[in-house]
Specification:
single chain, binds FE2/S2 (inorganic) cluster, globular, 5 strands, alpha+beta, five-stranded mixed beta sheet
Length: about 150
């Protein structure tokens, strides 16, 4: 079966099992390897992408569910040479350690800030349940607040 996708603004076709997890289409068929595989059971968030602006754990989301919707991966988050404010906050605040979880973390945070431009710590705890084995959670929290405040230098 053929599924028509819109990935980072480009039309793409997938021919195969419509139950294939979106993650494997993104990584193996389209070659967009910024989105990572962690647990495969919707627990860790490493595979987070946006489907019509909402964060989705793509390891557990069938490609057929994304048909005709706008998919954004970490490769499509920046606007040309201009980084998304979350990406800039991650650099300014030295968030990543090994980096493996970070694209999913950034995608989850970008979706949160679209919904709640000034999230509280409780909002962050509720929305950002991504797992980081390196323990960057405090830096993530600080960078979210920095991004929410326009990445102003202090
Ligand atoms: S790989 Fe999808 S949530 Fe862990
Ligand atoms: S930075 Fe290493 S797993 Fe998160």
């Amino acid at each position: 079966m053929s599924v028509t996708l819109n990935v980072n603004g480009a039309r793409r076709e997938f021919d195969g099992d419509p139950n294939t997890p979106l993650l494997w289409v993104i990584r193996d068929e389209l070659g967009l390897t910024g989105t990572k595989y962690g647990c495969g059971i919707a627990q860790c968030g490493a595979c987070t992408v946006h489907v019509d602006g909402a964060p989705v754990r793509s390891c557990s989301f069938p490609v057929s569910g994304a048909a005709g919707k706008k998919i954004t991966t970490i490769e499509g988050l920046a606007q040309g040479a201009t980084l998304h404010k979350v990406q800039q906050a991650w650099i300014n605040n030295d968030v990543p350690q090994c980096g493996y979880c970070q694209s999913g973390m950034i995608m989850a945070v970008a979706a949160l800030l679209k919904e709640k431009p000034k999230p509280t710590d409780a909002d962050i705890d509720g929305a950002i349940t991504n797992i980081c084995r390196c323990g960057t959670f405090q830096q993530v929290r600080e960078a979210i607040h920095a991004a929410a405040n326009g990445n102003a230098k202090v």
